[in-house]
Amino acid sequence: MKTNTYDLVIVGGGILGTFHAYHALKRGLRVLQLEKDNFPVGSTVRNFGQVVPSGMAGEWFEYGVRGLEIYQSIQQEMDISVRNNGSIYIASDPDEVKIIHELSNHYQIKGYQHEIWSKDQILSHYPAMKADYVKEGIIFKQELSVEPELMIKKLHSYIQAKFGHYTLKYDTTVIACEEMNDFVRLTTSTLQNFDGKKVIICNGYEFKILYRDLFDVSGLEISKLQMMRTKPLGHIRLPGNILTGLTIRRYESFEEYCPSFQTIPVPEHYKELKEYGIHILFKQATDGSIIVGDSHEYSLANKLDELGFSVQSYINELMIAEADRIIPMKSGWISTSWAGFYSQHKDHILEVDISSRIHVRTGIGGKGMTASAGYAEQSIDKLF
């Protein structure tokens, strides 16, 4: 094999592609990773940076738990912005209290460490919380958070420093992927060629550039999320990942493992929020600013334009009003607002083997920050 042929070429520089590279490199493979932009700009950086296996179900929970171990092992070698400050779900009414106790029963059997906190415990730990909102909570002290815009840059730097057989190229858009006799040739928009024994495509809905026909029938959906960040708020302290009543009524683990999930009524004040897929999360950054969100609107991946690209002020107003039921929150505190566009699939991820050498692994949706590290490990194990 020619010396400029890599064992693996990964298309996409986000979290899913990067952890595929990491696990391949740990096996001693020679890896090339290609990113079309000068830095990943998709869902990898447009999220809360919460690593919360507690919200996952089935094998995705297992991937998330493994991800906690992987993140922490890397953090011990280099600071990639990982913080072990836990996750807490705040129940705001008796139905949500019932559901968190049902989830607790499941995790007791599963052996996943957690605690049920009383109202007084929560208010003592989070004095900014409004007493009228808080009833009880379930806390997972082992869960993590990261700073998403920093983390992927730091992770790339860590991998470059650790592995001599890793090449990362930004500003490199792959426009063709052609299988030869014993390798795959990738052609870029600048007509460069790169050869690999295997190729894994992890570039979200951008894989339409390479396989339009497959993209159109893939079943990929796009979820548009609106998120906001406050200015630094020195008077509010919110350590950890803060997930609230609407999250309890939304996340997979509650739906899958809590018998009462399908039978509890939707309170009147939640109905309009649920129409926009709103559930309120908080994560405070190291500078004291707080990320607040988010909302969800959906379209087929090949109808992305139907979602529009603007941030709807009305949705932001709904989120601010609901956030203000939980902690003090004013519209004047919001410094930035943005929309993220995540590709997702009814099977939780799109896995297509174009051939024995070309593999599509994309559409991990909102699971990416939590589950990519663990999922990519088993993905590489299967492919190699």
Provide structural commentary:
The chain has helices at about 15-25, 60-75, 95-110, 120-125, 150-160, 210-215, 245-250, 250-255, 270-275, 315-325, 370-384; strands at about 5-10, 30-35, 50, 85-90, 115-120, 135-140, 145, 165-170, 175-180, 185-190, 195-200, 220-230, 240-245, 280-285, 290-295, 295-300, 335-345, 350-355, 360. The strands form three sheets. Strands 4, 5, 6, 12, 13, 14, 15, 16 and 17 form a nine-stranded mixed beta sheet that branches. Strands 1, 2, 8, 9, 10, 11, 18 and 19 form an eight-stranded mixed beta sheet that branches. It has a two-stranded antiparallel ribbon with strand order 3-7. The mean pLDDT is about 95. The protein folds into two domains: about 1-85 and about 145-220 and about 350-384, 3-Layer(bba) Sandwich (FAD/NAD(P)-binding domain), CATH 3.50.50; about 85-140 and about 220-345, D-Amino Acid Oxidase, subunit A, domain 2 (D-Amino Acid Oxidase, Chain A, domain 2), CATH 3.30.9. The chain is globular, with a radius of gyration of 21 Å. Strand 10 and strand 11 (about 195-200) form a beta hairpin. It starts with a strand and ends with a helix. Helix 1 (about 15-25) crosses helix 11 and helix 2 packs across helix 11. The chain has about 375 residues and is α+β, with helices and mostly antiparallel strands. It is built from eleven helices and 19 strands.
